[in-house]
Amino acid sequence: MLVVEDEPSIADVLAIALRYHRFEVMIAGTVREALALAERTRPDAALLDVMLPDGDGRALGRELRARRPDLALVFLTARDSPAEIVGALGFGDDYITKPFNIDEVVARITAVLRRTRTADVLPQRPPLRYGDLELDETTYSAHRAGRTVELTPTEYALLRFLVRNGGRIVPKEQLLRHVWQYEHTPPESTVVETYISYLRRKLEALGPPMITTRRGVGYGLA
After folding, report:
1. Coil, strand or helix: which one is 34?
2. Which residues form the Response regulatory domain (predicted)?
3. What span, in angstroms and rounded, lies between the C-alpha atoms of 96 and 74?
């Protein structure tokens, strides 16, 4: 999945949500970067911002579609006039306006791919278990002692990584790389601590504490 968005905060939100739903995501901020990425990786779908620093996302969509006719195209933009929408849908598969609901974006991309990739069926995946905790890798749901744990996509991704590492302490830097896909994060960032506190509150509502902290190192499961 190629995401072309020049606003880093929006690109990050889209990437986290799409990766949670098992998309392989590549991000480009310009037309030039997008064309180079598409040439190297040949994505099945592209989510394109219409207004880019070095060109028009619709022209980029036409170029990508010319190179690969079966590529699914979804446009994302603040422009919402009927003429803009009709023009984009003349060769694209869907059109989403900003501000957007991230769940709607994922649902509409999934629907587009369902229409264009009808033969693709995702395989069943066995659940992940740790103590009385179970993560369903098919529905992306979590249960503790048989009761549902309501998690956001990021919370689920963080908990899944901790479960996969069993009782080991996972360094904060490793969590940032694998859950948030950050390679370089300011040392004062508190995103991991914030989401660990969210997980603790939700898990401890259903049972004893299970997330441990190794001060100055990272986090793990008891």
Report:
1. helix
2. 1-113
3. 7
